[in-house]
Amino acid sequence: MEHDPSEDRGEQGRERAERAAEDDDLTESMAALSRLSSGRWDLVDLLEKVASFAVQAIPGAEGAGLTLIEAGRADTIVKSAPFVEEIDGIQYGLGEGPCISAAETGRTMRSGSLGDDPRWPRFGPRADGLGVHSVLSLPLIADDVAVGAMNVYAHAPGSFDERSQELGELFAVPAAIAVQNAQILAQTRRLAVTLQAALTSQSVIDQAIGILRSRSGISAAEAFTRLREAGQSEHIKVNAVAAGVVQDAVHRAKARRPDTD
Q1: For residue 76, which phi and psi values (nearest 5 degrees)?
Q2: Cα 228 to Cα 167: distance, rounded to the nearest angstrom
Q3: pLDDT tens for residues 190-228?
Q4: Averaged pLDDT of the chain
Q5: Is domain 7-177 classified as CATH 3.40.50.410?
Q6: Looking at domain 191-256, does it have CATH number 1.10.10.10?
Q7: pTM of the predicted structure, to 2 decimals
Q8: Per-residue b or e along 87-123, where b marks 16 or more CB atoms closer than 10 Å to that residue's CB
Q9: How far apart are the first and last CA of the chain?
């Protein structure tokens, strides 16, 4: 039987249509990513949005997890599907897996047979036991620094090919910028809260010092020493002792106030 050239043309047409649809999904996901305002979302919510857009952008993806790498703080891990939380929990519990490798090396990790992948001899069989056989892990690089890493999973073996990796790496570029911006905003907010707490604490201590000085005629240094020694004996912080002094002074003042009712 002679080969029908029209079959080749039909197959080529289907491949072109499929690639065009994939390009459209990537474009749509990146456009949605660009519309994300880090000021409108808290850090975890924004990262979950990024993970969900990744599933839309990368062919074959069924779920995605995203890890934020931040010195001095535990990694923030989000997921777009419940099974991702379980499999990423195994990965971080073992300290071994494709996302960890991607973050450490700054290179994409891809596997279509996790169960017998020699790179992760402990993690792979555990993932296989959950029926998850394919992964695409993408480092999120901003300003030449890995700010996070993204895991994209699928249950079927061999779900991610070079095309999936190509689209994933394209998506990872703006995703890294979005993650970095969210990270900076979260750090700024935490710093503001810390500074406000410090200012409030110092204000209470200053008030307590003033109260002790007015009661006893002692110096500011002597008043602070009393607060500190009281904190040491009661095993509480100086600002807690100071707050007690201020509250006691307020109660005394109210008790002396004439009843105007």
Answers
A1: -95, 120
A2: 60
A3: 666 665 666 567 777 888 888 888 788 888 888 888 888
A4: 80
A5: no
A6: yes
A7: 0.62
A8: bbebbbeeebbbbbbbbeeeebbbbbebeebeebeeb
A9: 109
